[in-house]
Amino acid sequence: MRLPVLFIMTNVMLDAMGIGLIVPVMPDLIRDIEGGTLAGAAVWGGILSTIYAVMQFLFGPTLGSLSDRYGRRPILLISLGFMSLSYFLMATAGSMMLLIVARIVGGITAASYATASAYMADISKPHEKAANFGLIGAGFGAGFVLGPLIGGFLGELGPRAPFYAAAGLAALNTVFGFFVLKETVTDAIRRPFDWRRANPLGAFRQVAKLPGIGHLLAVYFIYQVAFNVYPSVWSFYTQERFGWSAQTIGLSLALFGIMMAIVQGGLIRLVLRWWGERRTVIYGHVFDILVFGLIAIISSGAIALVLTPLAALGAVITPALQGMMSQRVSNDAQGELQGVLGSMNALATILAPLTMTSTFALFTAPNTPVYLPGAPFLLSMVLVGVALVIFARRPSGMT
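Now predict its structure.
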């Protein structure tokens, strides 16, 4: 593997770890700073998670557009440096205000996911883009697994220990990138920075104007909302439905993340070779409709545990869609496109928990007319079906 690609995958892994790392120790960290009850800590935890996602939503297009102007290398290295600083602030924070500042900085730096994706687009030939975006997904999957594991393991040493480790990892990757990362933005594809295109709404309007992009953006966003049912309600659903312990829930999520990394890092190349990008997207949607439907109605925890890693097979959708969109965008706007996609991911992580947890609560409340803990997965099944219809009804002439 080329060293720059290894750096990009590590960068994305650290971005993904930023969410999972904090989960096991957040209650103890907040109570260590603020005192109070677990319920009060949960409120603060929700605020911090929302701040993190909102910053990603707002700054994805900004960092992407800055990288189109000033290059991928400085944006990625500066973001990593500040990511290390944000983790260090969390490790040493003595007040909630400092913890909030750290999450603001962390959310902004995590928006460099868009720039990392643009770098991957720069170094890929058109027919390689979807498969190479799969490597980005593999890095995310690894971070999805490692974040909670590192957080839980080092959390035994104290609620601040995981953040010292994360700060060190981000600092080391910054040094690594300084020596191996070559700039891919040349004067031939450099684009002037424009604030009107460097915000989520402006960037979305600009990208959506391109032929064949608008309906793909809609499919991408709807699918992201549906797919976020897993981090949103999985722990609640499995505890309610199967009585799983925290250990079993953690194991199932680790299996899911590992399988996701395998699918997007390797299996997707075979799938794309067999079916091409369009049929891969269709296959992924059909597969997820079946899996969501099954998860919603099963009553066996053992079957659910088997389905968990299999559900990751639908993860071929995201890199295939990214590849299709990247090929429709000029080389000087790759960062802008990836910034838009990053903002859509962040918006999905804001909307999905609200929607999915509300649905779960509605169908598991003591006075509910219909008891159905799997209702959020049925909702996701419907959303994926809508996305599939939109994709199938693409504008004429689009492949």
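The chain has a mean pLDDT of 84.
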